[in-house]
Each structure stands twice: as C-alpha cells, then as structure tokens.
Amino acid sequence: MNIHEYQGKAILKSFGVRVQEGIVAETVEQAVAAAKKLKEDLNSSWVVVKAQIHAGGRGKGGGVKLAKNLDEVKEKAGNILGMQLITPQTGPEGKKVNKVLVAQDVYYPGESETKEFYISVLLDRAKGRNIVMYSTEGGMDIEHVAEHTPHLIFKEEIDPKVGLQPFQARKIAFNLNLSGEAFKDMVKFVTALYKAYDATDSSLFEINPVLKTSDNKILAVDAKVNLDDNGLFRHPDFAALRDLAEEDPTEVEASKSNLNYVKLDGNVGCMVNGAGLAMATMDIIKLAGGEPANFLDVGGTANAETVKAAFNIILEDPKVKAILINIFGGIVRCDRVAQGVIDAYQELGNINVPIIVRLQGTNAEEAKALIDNSGLKVYSAILLKEAAERVKEVLAL
C-alpha cells in the first residue's frame, strides 16, 4: 500500500528519524496558515509547496515550488492544488492533486555546503534479505545513476537474524564520504531508518534526497513508503493512511469483493482463479494476437456472487472486446462459477461482448450443462489451446 510523503515522514519521525518538517493542506487558506505556523515555530521564512500524489518526479511536472513569502505561498498552492500533475510515473493521464505539503526550507546558509544523498531500504527477493541501497548522487533519478554511473551505487545486505549492525551503519556513512558530526548523525539516521522499515513491515522506504545541511545535520527531505499489504493485520492503524482517491476506482471496487484485480490496457478481459493460471491465461491471449485488459484472480473460494462482481467489473472497461473466463475447479466448484456468469449476464442484459468460457475440474460437466441450457451466447473451450483459438476467432469478428 502506497502512502503520501507527509504520512511516510510521520512514520519516520516516530522512529527517531529527523525529517523536513511540514504541514499538509487541502486548500490555499490552509497552506497559507501552515506557512505562518512554520515561520513562527521554526523561523522558516521560505517554504516549499509540494504536491502530494502517489508518484515520483513531482518536481519535474511542476508539483514542487519554492515560496519566499505568503503571497507566493498563496500563488503556488493555488496553482498546484487541483492540477492534473503529469510525471514519468503517472503516465500521460497524470493525477489530480488534492493535497499539498507546506514544508520548511532546509537549504539554509551556513559554514559548510549542503549535500544530497540517496538511501533506500528494500527486499532483495533473489537473496531473501533486506538491503540498504545508497548513493552519493541524491536528488537524481536512481535509474539514471544506475545506468550512467553504477559505481556510485552501494548496497549493504542485512542478515535478517541480527538486523542492521553498527559497523554496517558506519560503513554506509564512510562510503558517503562523511566525517565529524555529519558522520555520527548519518549513523543514527540509517539505524533509525532501518528500524522504521523493519518494524512497520514495509516493502520499501526510499529517501531521495537525504540532506546534509550546512550545519551537518542529516534529515529526510522526501519519503516514498510502501507498506506491505500482507503485514497490515499487524498494523490496523495504518489502514487509515490509505488514500482511495489515489487508486484506480475499479481496483478499489474489486477490493471490496476480495478480488485481486489490476487494470491493464488491452482488449480481452480475463477472469481466472489462481495467480499462476491467470498469468498463463494472459500469455495465451498474447499468443492469440490479443492484449489482456486486466489481471483478475477470483481466488480459490469464489462463489456465484464473487464471479458476478468480477464479471461486472470487467464489463465496466470500454476497451474490452472479448472476455475469457478460465477456471480450474479445485477448491472452487465450476457450477458456482457458471451460475455467477449466468446471473451477471441476465442482470446486465444486452451484452455485445463475446464470452469464452473454459471450465475444468470439480463439477465441470454440471457447469457446462448450466451454460448450455442458459441460452447465453458464449463460446466453450476445454483445452487452453482451444481457448486461445476461440480468442483469435472472436477478435477477428
């Protein structure tokens, strides 16, 4: 589950990570009030107005602006709030900005120069270990750094039995070319950051940039946090951090019916039980010359109501030109799936999209009889190869 920058910073701060302070605002008036409070509490005469969306590269799209006074805060916040922010991670459609973070200016003058770093904590699935990935080249796209200067990216593997060790935190600070108070503060920063990542069951903590201020303090200027959905049962308070406005409405609707659904850009809707079979189904659609319109796993305990909900969700996509239902009845009964398809078809009526149904396993014969006697205009298939041929046929119509 993705969360906003201001929410990620709040989590980091609760674990002792120093962050760039800020106040979230949903209106221009709230943004101005936030700037006034930052000036009073932190003596921050300049502030940064930052769009809050679930995507990186906000600055490149015009979603991060420096404001030198309250008039500029009003202007910048007014321009950003409500805009359709397009970044390399949003796609061409962009995302609407409903909130901004008014943050303190931390690039203040001092005895030494400021310096930006990149630090993230994530899981290396191949090795089964968490890693701290870091670089001296903060403030840039890490993909760009990896492509053009890979020698500037370092990785520290963490043994899950013992966690991040003090010598590893010191090694990170050393590789970042720090010394003195900045070195000590970076050791504390990395230690607290890893503790936050581990304790919250997260799948990603990405801080870009991590800033060394001119007075040698280390703090998080940004925070991209991804909480592992599978660990949310241990953190019920995190459920309130979910922002449904940032998610695809269809995917939100699917989650209410306990469906694993991801919208894609193709023309063939898929309804399958089991993630592995769903991937195989998407492959045969590609081989048949089509493009999957979605990933949809109804699960092993699907019933008529679940299938009905899945059917309705697929048909909401105007790009869908055909639907392939591919069910292997192990735990789930094929006749229940067939009944769900029939119920959805009869309820919606006037469905002009061809439907290919492949049902194998428990009660497959009963399921076939239900569909054959329903009067539905569907194409039946037994083998995966046959299903692929059917897809090719209906797309050619």
Characterization of the model:
The chain is of the alpha+beta class. The chain folds into 3 domains: 160 residues, D-amino Acid Aminotransferase, Chain A, domain 1, CATH 3.30.470; 85 residues, Dna Ligase, domain 1 (2-Layer Sandwich), CATH 3.30.1490.20; 148 residues, Succinyl-CoA synthetase domains (Rossmann fold, 3-Layer(aba) Sandwich), CATH 3.40.50. The chain contains 12 helices and 18 strands. Strands 7, 8, 9, 10, 11 and 12 form a 6-stranded antiparallel sheet that branches. The mean pLDDT is 89.
CATH class category of the largest domain: Alpha Beta
Structural class: alpha+beta
The ordered string of helix (H) and strand (E) elements is: HEHEEHEEEEEHEHHEEEHEEHEHEHEHEH
Rg computed from alpha carbons, rounded to a whole number of angstroms: 26 Å
Helix segment count?
A: 12
Task: For this entry, give a set of tags.
single chain; about 400 residues; alpha+beta; D-amino Acid Aminotransferase, Chain A, domain 1; Dna Ligase, domain 1; Rossmann fold; about 35% helix
Architecture blueprint of SSEs:
Layout: H1 5-14, E1 22-25, H2 28-42, E2 47-51, E3 64-67, H3 70-80, E4 84-85, E5 95-96, E6 100-104, E7 115-124, E8 129-135, H4 142-148, E9 153-158, H5 166-175, H6 180-199, E10 202-212, E11 218-220, E12 224-227, H7 249-256, E13 260-263, E14 268-272, H8 275-287, E15 294-297, H9 304-315, E16 322-329, H10 334-348, E17 355-361, H11 364-372, E18 378-381, H12 384-396
Parallel strand pairs: 14-16, 16-17, 17-18
Antiparallel strand pairs: 1-6, 2-3, 2-6, 4-5, 7-8, 7-10, 8-9, 10-11, 10-12, 13-15
Helix pairs in contact: 2-3, 5-6, 8-12, 9-10, 10-11
